[in-house]
């Protein structure tokens, strides 16, 4: 027993660092979402433009997480996580000082750079330094950190935006990031260094540009239709992504090892994981507007209601992580996807006449879904990566988390604009009936893709790699 306790204590500093890195990501996701209606009203934005306050953050995060994951895997993990905490803090300060939407979006992009450093390095710490049998537990600790941030984010964001201003939802990150950088400096061993000449700079640029153009086309087409900007961005995406794939196949050390996608199992798990993230973040984007426009809630009340989902995630994530390590990940992923289908179905049927307990149940199901399936589906994704490519698998795990978040926000915003025919109109000015047309349309689409995730999760049998 003493040996076991000593063994566990040896990993505590590493686990704390993992939790801190994910904490800031979780905090910033929910603390900003609950303030979006206030920010939108402040700048007079429609749903399409306001979604980019969230989308640009996750877009930069997703576009760079593979790049920083590669650097972490090459021996620069300590430098990257410390730099990530500092960049995130400084960018948060710039966001809070913004009085112009262009400045805010630019600062959010820089904040995404810092967040991508944290996302890549935090997940990599679990895979690189923890023993194999602790993988799900380590990922669960990261999910716990993210869940704690997400749990306090809505209420804290609501209080700050209501009593001070929306600027303070960004200022709050600054002291947390600085303290976390100090702890990370003491907790992580010195870097081994990396070979800069072997880094795939061209592939990194091609990947990032293809993601930017593709997400822009996806977000703008449903709400704005066929425009010059939409067509150009779609063509650029096809060209850039095709060049990226061809280029990555030719080089010996690619930023993204495409060989992992030869496995149908890996693709199925990846798609289901992507859908789970997209549905979760799509709901977190639209629900604050629903509570403001349809239910007449203030910002604090919106935050308290969103707290339900985060608390349910917090309750389940660590316990389920340990159980999945012993019993396998598949049952928990299937259960989580089923809960997601039910939650999305409830949201798609909601209107202002429904009692608020329906909203609470939907949020509880959404949070339970992530608590039950979040760690296991991440571990399952890595289980289906060849053992000699587990570094690539952990980077892809982070990529799917944040690309799914960007995808969900952009997709649900675009579907809302299409369903409500409200492109160019400030959300605060929409008639409640018009709002519900867009809200219901987006959530109904969510039911369909959640069902697809359930089918894919059911179809892939359990397979554990050797330790």
Draw up the topology in text.
Elements: H1 2-10, H2 12-33, H3 36-43, H4 47-97, H5 101-129, H6 135-163, H7 168-171, H8 173-187, H9 201-224, H10 228-250, H11 264-293, H12 299-327, H13 330-349, H14 356-383, H15 390-420, H16 432-459
Condensed summary:
This protein has 467 residues and is an all-alpha fold.
Provide structural commentary:
The protein has 467 residues and is an all-alpha fold. It has two domains: 10-199 and 255-459, Growth Hormone, Chain: A (Up-down Bundle); 200-254. It contains 16 helices and no strands. Helix 6 (135-163) packs antiparallel against helix 14, helix 9 runs parallel beside helix 15 and helix 13 packs antiparallel against helix 14. The longest helix has 51 residues, at 47-97. The radius of gyration is 21 Å and the shape is globular. The chain starts with a helix and ends in an 8-residue tail after the last helix.
